[in-house]
Write a structure and sequence with these properties.
The complex is a heterodimer of chains A (about 300) and B (about 375). Chain A contains 13 helices and no strands. Chain A has helices at about 1-10, 10-45, 70-75, 80-110, 115-130, 130-140, 150-155, 170-195, 200-210, 215-240, 245-250, 265-275, 275-309. In chain A, α4 crosses α8 (about 170-195) and α12 (about 265-275) packs antiparallel against α13 (about 275-310). In chain B, α2 packs across α3 and α2 (about 90-100) runs parallel beside α4. Chain B has two domains: about 5-85 and about 135-225, Rossmann fold (3-Layer(aba) Sandwich), CATH 3.40.50.300; about 235-360, Nucleic acid-binding proteins (OB fold (Dihydrolipoamide Acetyltransferase, E2P), Beta Barrel). Chain B has helices at about 40-50, 90-100, 105-120, 135-150, 165-185, 195-200, 220-225, 230-235, 270-275, and strands at about 5-15, 15-25, 30-35, 55-60, 65, 75-80, 155-160, 185-190, 205-210, 210-215, 240-250, 250-255, 280-285, 290-295, 300-310, 315-320, 325-330, 340-345, 350-355, 360. In chain B, a hairpin with a 5-residue loop joins β19 and β20. In chain B, the strands form four sheets. Chain B has a six-stranded mixed beta sheet, sandwiched between helices. Chain B has a five-stranded antiparallel beta sheet with strand order 12-11-13-19-20. Chain B has a five-stranded antiparallel beta sheet with strand order 14-18-15-16-17, with no helix packed on it. Chain B is built from nine helices and 20 strands. Classes of the chains: A mainly alpha (about 300), B alpha+beta (about 375). At the A-B interface, α9 and α10 of A face β6 and α2 of B.
Chain lengths: ~300, ~375
């Protein structure tokens, strides 16, 4: 009888357990909603007003300062914003490919066996472990006019070099880019090395026996097998690099002038110095949308890859 | 088509010696099986022929050509890996075309050859399928086709059937044998499965612990094992080995098996060989398949410990302690555990091995 009951009441039981499951996850869902959705909605709300903490009213009363889409139209014509965005993209366009190629090259070296492999492996990973602010300070020191970089250049050229790396608007960007490459090449190296080690040894041997040269193996076996991991590595660095702040801020403060002012430094300054929070909210939301599109494209590409495989 | 000569081949990995002084000649167009338990050095031998590993000592010659300085990509060797190593990110066609493409062959020629190989291996309808989700037998054919298309002089197969279930293995054995005839290439086949070696190979090289034990046709190896290892290893179950001493009786020379008593008189040739060899302690050996039930006093009396039914035949386990033997009978054998069976081995198939050296006495 029990068995018959259980079978007959299957639908009802399913319904019941589904409801129980939902009830049990409500607290967690509320928490997720609060963490993710609430700040986003708050930001969207403020971005449509002129609200600033100096106004003396709570943010929830920001509707009193409603300005519609004025923040967004201001943003469209804000040269400083577009300049910062352009600089961020230039930094990204140099840093990410440089880190990728250096990291990939190093990873390929490390798939071979050479003396001191373990030692150099640890050394290579060290920059990644340095707190970015500390890295910023290190590079701040390195690029002083009387600093080691100039000393080394002097030794190479043979006459004293005194380049004011950080205070020359044309050179400061190179200095901060150098710091970023130094710090984040190891991450690329690590991810790509893991990818390289995942390429099946047998397939490489099979390709060799079929007459493929090193380069042919690389193009026909290694790269296709690493597509997904390369996309992940690039996506991580593009998104991270877009948000770069601490190292740059400590090295140059975004200066001289706005020569190294990236989007994050720009937002930080507008937030803390000009205190126009409605405007800041609009900037933040715009960037979030841009980054989401980038991430979305990457994810779509990867799931297309997986369907293929 | 190429003959392979291995001369004094040695391979050491650090302190471990994988292969000790191996001499082997594989004839042009021959299907040679390297057979042995895991760790016997068969795969190492094959990897050295392919050029994936360099010998510590010794030479590998293809015909008269020393291969020492020829990198693996240029040896003209086709290799089928245990897991087939199919390029799963490519289609069947791309896999087949790979070797030709790497050689920069013109497109039209590639298409022609791919078509021909696909036809031969019945892959034509699958050419544009992605290779990732094909079944094992298709993967195997693809792996063979991919190597065959570059027309290698030598074909090496590394346990290609070990991932396949038993029923399928039988089908693939036949298929492989057909393919070898079709390609007419020198084939070296590594396996730990004696059935594969027996059914497919022209000759078998039996290996153990990095030492080549015996080379011969399947029947030679089965009928006349060169030593105790081969005797035990080949056959399922392997040969029965009973330890004893050579002795004389009024009926002629026999082997005194101690508690089991004396064996029936040895055949003249075998007795003569044993006398010439000067052996005392010997193994008296016979195949489980070559045993019949004898009358009291005409054979060895041994207790039946276990009767194992394997379907087609029945394996009877005999004896206890050191003196055990297995006998294969038809299913209607009237023995059951606890009884005593009197058995006698087919005189022509009895073999003697020197207990000290383990080497065969006489015919082998």
């Amino acid at each position: 009888m029990v068995v018959v009951d259980a079978a007959g009441g299957g639908g009802r039981q399913d319904e019941e357990s589904r409801r129980l499951g939902f009830a049990l996850t409500v607290p967690a869902q509320m928490l997720v909603l609060f963490i993710a959705a609430f700040p986003l909605l708050m930001q969207a709300y403020i971005s449509l007003t002129d609200w600033s903490p100096l106004d003396g009213i709570g943010w929830w009363r920001a509707w009193e300062l409603w300005n519609g889409f004025a923040n967004y139209s201001d943003l469209a014509t804000d040269n400083r914003f577009w300049g910062a965005l352009g600089r961020t993209i230039i930094v990204m366009a140099i840093c990410v490919p440089a880190e990728f190629l250096l990291g990939f090259g190093l990873a390929i070296l490390f798939t071979g066996n050479f003396v001191g492999r373990r030692f150099f492996y640890s050394v290579l990973l060290m920059p990644m472990m340095v707190v970015p602010a500390v890295a910023g300070y290190m590079f701040f020191m390195l690029f002083q006019s009387g600093g080691p970089v100039n000393d080394i250049l002097s030794a190479i050229i043979g006459s004293p070099v005194q380049i004011a790396w950080l205070s020359d608007p044309d050179l400061a960007l190179f200095a901060v880019i150098a710091s970023d490459i130094w710090q984040w090449t190891p991450l690329m190296f690590l991810i790509l090395l893991a990818g390289l080690l995942g390429v099946p040894e047998d397939q490489l041997k099979a390709a060799t026996l079929l007459g493929a040269s090193w380069w042919q193996r690389f193009v026909t076996i290694v790269l296709p097998r690493m597509k997904t991991i390369i996309v992940i590595a690039l996506a991580i660095r593009v998104i991270e690099n877009f948000k770069v702040f601490d190292t740059f801020y400590i090295m140059t403060g975004g200066g001289p002038g706005v020569a190294t002012e990236t989007i994050s430094i720009f937002i930080y300054k507008v937030t803390t110095q000009e205190l126009v929070w409605g405007y800041v909210a609009a900037i933040g939301l715009t960037i979030l949308i841009v980054l989401s599109v980038v991430a979305g494209v990457a994810i779509k590409y990867m799931s297309a890859q997986r369907r293929e495989a | 088509m190429t003959a392979i000569h291995l001369e004094g081949l040695v391979k050491r990995f650090g302190d471990f010696t994988a292969l000790r002084a191996m001499d082997l000649e594989i004839r042009d167009g021959e299907f040679m099986a390297l057979l042995g338990p895991s760790g016997c050095g068969k795969s190492t031998t094959m990897n050295m022929i392919a050029g994936m590993e360099a010998p510590t000592q010794g030479r590998i010659l293809f015909d008269d050509r020393d291969m020492a300085s020829v990198p693996m990509g240029q040896r003209g060797v086709g290799f089928v890996f245990q897991n087939y190593a199919i390029f799963t990110h490519m289609t069947v066609r791309q896999n087949l075309a790979y070797g030709l493409k790497m050689r920069g062959m013109p497109r039209a020629e590639i298409d022609k050859r791919v078509g021909a190989v696909a036809e031969l291996l019945q892959l034509t309808s699958l050419l544009d399928r992605p290779s990732a989700k094909l079944s094992v037998n298709i993967l195997q054919r693809l792996a063979i086709g991919r190597s065959a298309i570059i027309e290698p002089a030598i074909f090496l197969l590394d346990e290609p059937l070990s991932n396949v279930d038993a029923a399928f293995r039988a089908v693939m054995r036949t298929e492989l044998r057909h393919l070898q005839h079709a390609f007419r290439q020198t084939m070296v086949y590594v396996t730990h499965d004696q059935l594969e070696a027996m059914t497919m190979a022209d000759r078998i090289a039996v290996m153990d612990h990095g030492v080549l034990q015996q080379v011969g046709t399947p029947l030679e190896v089965y009928n006349n094992p060169a030593n105790v290892f081969v005797a035990r290893f080949i056959g399922s179950p392997g040969m029965n080995l009973l330890k004893g001493r050579l002795a004389d009786s009024d009926r002629g020379p026999v082997v005194d098996l101690g508690q089991l008593g004396a064996t029936p008189p040895l055949p003249d040739a075998l007795a003569a060989a044993a006398r010439t060899a000067g052996a005392e302690e010997v193994f008296y050996c016979f195949r489980p398949e070559e045993i019949s039930i004898a009358r009291e006093g005409r054979g060895l009396a041994m207790p039946v410990t276990f009767v194992e039914r394997i379907g087609a035949r029945t394996i009877v386990h005999l004896g206890e302690g050191e003196e055990t033997a297995k006998a294969v009978f038809d299913n209607d054998v009237g023995l059951s555990a606890g009884e005593t069976a009197v058995i006698s081995a087919n005189e022509e198939t009895v073999r003697l091995f020197d207990a000290a050296s383990g080497q065969a006495i006489g015919s082998a």
